[in-house]
Design a protein that fits this description.
The protein is an alpha/beta fold and 525 residues long. Helices cover 33% and strands 17% of the residues. It has 15 helices and 22 strands. The strands form seven sheets. Strands 8-16-15-14-13-9-10 form a seven-stranded mixed sheet, with helices on both faces. Strands 1-2-3-4 form a four-stranded antiparallel sheet, with no helix packed on it. A three-stranded antiparallel sheet has the order 17-22-21, covered by helices on one side. Strand 18 and strand 19 form a beta hairpin. Helix 3 packs across helix 10 and helix 4 packs parallel to helix 10. The longest helix has 23 residues.
């Protein structure tokens, strides 16, 4: 909901697409001037385009942070979130949040925390992190990294991992500094770098198909790799940070140890104070672990290697993570940074001026949940073992549905994978069904304002077939998306109930049957 203060009055949007001042409707266009549109407020055109309702809104000046982000336009999340909200029959495998409750022990921990008058968790706590939680995190990361972590000096608790990354960048980056992003990348990274005054430098991962696409239009799955030469050519003495995300969103890639060593090697060519920001929110969801990592894995993180554990990297790394993905509680919004005290101290310095402290109740609940997660759970040695097995099973359900409908997907017997997304490649039989009028239609939310194949297909599948996933283009730089690099891919989430995934499989099977009926000779229809 928008609330604007205009010439001293409160302006509230109403259902008639007008603003109300003291009870009197005021048409939007009476004060809308040339410039920008509002994220999340869009109208769908008849050809599948999306028009911002108030794209010309411009009242007064803007601050420097807003200027760094550029024009105010709809995002992929607002555009596709709106589609799901307007049609409750759509099966939503778009955004990455589970549609089930957290584990019982986490809910019980929350109830206990709420009712614990002795701990007084309903008041402010230490800005750098609730003492009970930072002690638990230090205990765990001491085991993860095989190094003693000081809970008060080397851990900082934030409002989710997004804020952990934001504050890390704010403490590291000056205007003009360069920050390396491996492309495709989680779209939040680019704008957080810009908000800090930095310049994103995109290092493309290379997609390597398993097989050559055949003459019948059958495309192959494959894997994404980091090429050493590409990285080395991108860094220089202006490079102040490298954001590493493994397991990776959106591709599910797990960076090999060799690729991590490329990153460590690249630091020799950067600014001496360059820091690796290692985003590890999916570390407990390694559903296809690299076969060579049996001796490298850390506590409960089968197949995961913490970048900070590499030789000499502790002093050059801020490790970022959160509770949301692990405990299926993305709304808890508790994240953290772990690193050397000279880097964490700067984050501690900023925290009181941002939100003072993350929720004390939630921090206390998480502190109680962490040791309970180590205990046997649902017939497994720990909750983390249960979590991996559940996600592996759900992944396989979705892999089968996507493959059967004409998408190419990773082969997890040969390609390691983690997180809860599949970066599926659009098959020819799927692409051929897309109505030509939707391709390259004007769409303000799409990169460059044009709906290329990935975006047009996702919007068409949602609107016409009731299956929603996310186009890949927002995870690429604008320039590369406009070159068509992202045309062939979509991101599909499997952090959903079996019933939701099965409903998606049904929608996808109808998509396939529609193509078969169109392609079949008349005598077989």
């Amino acid at each position: 909901m928008q609330i604007l203060v205009f010439l001293g009055y409160w302006l509230l949007p109403d259902s008639t697409n007008a603003f109300t001042i003291l009870g009197s409707p005021l048409p939007r266009q009476s004060f809308l001037q040339e410039k920008v549109g509002s994220a999340g407020e869009t109208d769908a055109g008849t050809n599948g385009s999306v028009e911002p309702r108030n794209k010309n809104l411009h009242i007064g000046g803007v601050g420097e942070a807003t200027e760094r982000l550029g024009p105010l336009i709809p995002t992929v999340w607002s555009a596709f979130g709106r589609l799901a909200q307007e049609n409750d029959k759509i099966v939503n495998l778009g955004q990455g949040f589970p549609d089930w409750l957290p584990p019982d022990f986490a809910i019980q921990s929350l109830v206990e925390a709420v009712q614990d008058s002795a701990q007084s968790p309903h008041q402010y706590t230490r800005p750098a992190g609730h003492p009970n939680l930072v002690k638990q995190l230090a205990r765990r990361y001491s085991a993860h990294l095989r190094k003693e972590i000081d809970p008060m000096l080397e851990v900082a608790v934030t409002v989710g991992a997004s804020q952990a990354l934001f504050l890390s960048l704010q403490t590291l980056i000056k205007p003009g500094d360069e920050v390396v992003l491996f492309e495709p990348f989680f779209d939040l990274y680019e704008n957080q770098v810009k908000l800090a005054g930095g310049k994103p430098v995109f290092v493309p991962l290379t997609f390597v198909p398993y097989d050559v696409d055949d003459d019948n239009g059958v495309v192959s799955g494959g894997e994404w790799i980091l090429e050493r030469k590409t990285l080395m050519n991108a860094v220089n003495t202006k490079t102040k940070a490298i954001i590493l995300n493994s397991p990776h969103n959106p591709t599910g890639k797990i960076f090999t140890r060799g690729e991590m060593e490329f990153v460590a090697e690249a630091l020799e060519l950067t600014d001496p104070e360059c820091v690796v920001l290692s985003d590890e929110v999916y570390k407990y969801i390694v559903h296809a672990p690299p076969k060579e990592r049996a001796t490298e894995e850390s506590l409960f993180c089968r197949g995961h290697v913490h970048f900070a554990s590499l030789p000499g990297m502790w002093d050059k790394t801020i490790t970022i993570s959160s509770a949301g993905k692990t405990f299926s509680a993305t709304g808890w919004q508790v994240g953290w940074c772990v690193g050397p005290r000279h880097l964490i101290a700067r984050i501690h310095q900023l925290l009181p001026y941002v939100q003072f402290c993350a929720s004390t109740v939630i921090q206390e609940a998480l502190a109680r949940s962490l040791p309970r997660a180590d205990e046997p759970y649902e017939g497994y040695a720990s909750y983390y073992d249960f979590l991996r097995e559940e996600y592996t099973r759900k992944r396989d359900m979705l892999v089968t549905a996507l493959r059967d409908s004409g998408f190419a997907v990773p082969d997890y017997d040969r390609t390691p994978g983690g997180g809860f997304f599949i970066f599926a490649r659009i098959g020819k039989s799927i692409a051929e069904q897309l109505p030509p009028a939707r391709l390259f239609a004007k769409n303000d939310a799409a990169p460059g304002g044009i709906a290329r194949q990935d975006w047009a297909l996702c919007q068409w599948m949602a609107e016409e077939h009731g299956f929603l996933c996310i186009p890949s283009s927002p995870f690429f730089s604008k320039e590369r998306a406009q070159q068509g690099v992202s045309d062939e891919f979509v991101r599909v989430a499997f952090c959903k109930t079996d019933e939701t995934i099965q409903a998606a499989a049904t929608a996808l099977s109808k998509l396939k049957s529609d193509h078969t009926s169109v392609a079949a000779p008349a005598c077989f229809r």
